[in-house]
Amino acid sequence: MRLITLLRHPRRAVLARWGRIPGIRTAKVTLAAVLAYVAADLLNTTATPILAPLTAILVVQVTVYQTVAEGFQRVLSVLAGVLVAVVLATVVGLSWWSLGVVVAASLVLGQVLRLGSHTLEVPISAMLVLAVGGGAAPQAAAGRVYETLIGTVTGIAVNFAIAPPVHVESAGSAVAGLATRLGDFLRSLATDLRSGWSRQAAQDWLSAARSLSASVLQADHSLVRAEQSAVLNPRGGEVRVAQPRLRTALTAIEYCTIVVRSLCREMFDRTFYLPPELEAEAYSAAARVALADVLDLAGAAFDGVAAVAAGAEPVDTTRARVAEQLDELYRRREHLGRLLLVDPQADAAAWQQHGALLTAVDRLRVEIEAAVRPATRPWRPPSLAEGPRRAARRVVGAAEQSLPLVTDRSRQAVRRMMDVAADAAAEAAEHLAKPDPRAAHSRGDAGAGPLAEQASADAAAAAFRAAADSPAEEDAARPVPPPRTGSPEGDQE
Q1: Closest CA to 353 of 296, 299, 287
Q2: Of 170, 342, 393, 458, which one is least surrounded by beta carbons within 10 A?
Q3: Phi-psi bin for 44: left (phi > 0), alpha (psi -120 to 50), beta?
């Protein structure tokens, strides 16, 4: 299948494999390593600053977002390992028991910090610093931290500045390839139905239908990577335009794989519950031909879904063609229903299984129509402030349980400040990813710096005023209890 795709569409196959023109990432990784080494050498971090280019090579990922995340986790792991090593190096040297303490403490610290695959970087950094020992340990620790920071910053800058990838074409090729595979599956099943039918054939097609789910996971992974590539990316507009179309198509195709599996299951059940000598008579020759015609039309409609996902032709033209094919599929389905009509009193099992088969065909038609339907809402990349905001709220929730004396007023003020700070951070990140040309034009003015500082100060003051005013607003909105009348003695009575 991959060889046929490569021969028919070589450019699409290359983009599906690499996500963009081959050689770009290799050049970026090489440039980041060289620049990191030059920067570390000029700053004289260590005698041989090889850790800086090594970090740059490891940091440069397929998307800007993954590069930033990778760099942050690597810096955090190195800092954690260096701190553990410096604390122990000042007290003891390198021995078997100090090495065990360092490794155990580093692994625990990495798990607490949730470093994931970078957890092993913590004990490695700690052991390298501990091996120096004595008074040279702080200097070695500082050099390792500096080189890690230099490599991380260089890798992020290179990946952000030089053709930041968006991976739209690779995601479209993955979704289109999945639709094409599903169409080829239905056409092959139709061919087998016309040639004959048996219990073994039904079981083989059911096993083949169950294997389609793995392709759905691969296409979803490619689309998620394209969605991540829009974060902190000046070229993220391409993903914003294509994501609704691709996500709609992929969701409908995923449902179609489930429907196709159900359809094959019903065909297998109809053949399985008949005696062996009657398995070829599960469906009449006319019914098998009619079902094959329905599956052929569904396969042709999936070709239109693939064209919409890949963007190879005008979307409106493809949608109109798919609509015509689905109308013809509905007429063929009505003909198939008349051929499969049985008396439920005479054969209740056949009536039930034929009804389930027709229901699967109806659902397949509906999902194909949904795959090419225009998206109703635009898409925006996930906010970078959402993760820190959830983490801060988890911390506040834990503090509420451990500190029951915290009042609602202070708790709501803290939450208001967190929300305002998270929104400000998101706006700053979006400004860095998509700078305003008017702001860039006004940088030559002498008063631009003070005005920006004054604006940021006003924003911070507004945030604190909002946090401070929220308890007062709640007190004003709280109903005032009515004044008490009568004497205290009367109240006691």
Answers
A1: 287
A2: 458
A3: left
Q: Read off the tokens for 458.
A: 């006003």
Mean pLDDT across the chain, nearest whole number? 77
Q: Which amino acid is at 109?
A: L
**Closest Cα partner for 229 from 158, 291, 318, 159?**
159
User: Which residues are within 8 A (CB) of 392 and not within 5 positions of it... i.e. 6 or more apart?
Assistant: 418, 422
Identify whether the C-beta of residue 392 lies closer than 8 Å to the C-beta of residue 418.
yes
> CA–CA separation, 216 vs 286, rounded Å?
34
Single out the residue of 106, 74, 113, 69 nearest to residue 87, CA to CA.
106
Mean pLDDT of 444-466: 45
Contact 283, 197 (CB under 8 A): yes
| Range 389-396 contact pairs with CB under 8 angstroms and sequence separation of 24 or more | 389/418, 389/419, 389/422, 392/418, 392/422, 393/418
Please state, in angstroms and rounded to a whole number, the distance separating the CA atoms of residues 304 and 318. 6
Structure tokens at 285: 């020759």
Residue 44 has pLDDT above 80, yes or no: yes
Please say if the pLDDT value at position 468 is more than 70: no
In 312-346, which positions are buried (b, 16+ CB within 10 angstroms) versus exposed (e)? eeeeeebbebbeebbeebeebbeebbeebeeeeee
> Which residue is associated with the tokens 């009575």?
493
Per-residue confidence (pLDDT) for residue 250, from 0 to 100:
94
Q: What is the pLDDT of residue 409?
A: 55
Q: What is residue 489's predicted lDDT score, i.e. its pLDDT?
A: 40
Q: Say what the pLDDT of residue 441 is.
A: 39
Amino acid 414 reads V
- Residue 411: which pLDDT band, with cuts at 50, 70 and 90? low
107-116, 374-383, 457-466: lowest mean pLDDT where? 457-466
10 class by beta-carbon count within 10 Å (0-12 exposed, 13-18 middle, 19+ buried): exposed
- Looking at 3.40.50.880, 1.10.3720.10, 3.20.20.140, 1.20.58.220, the CATH number of the domain 168-371 comes to 1.20.58.220
The domain ranges of the chain are 21-161, 168-371, 383-435
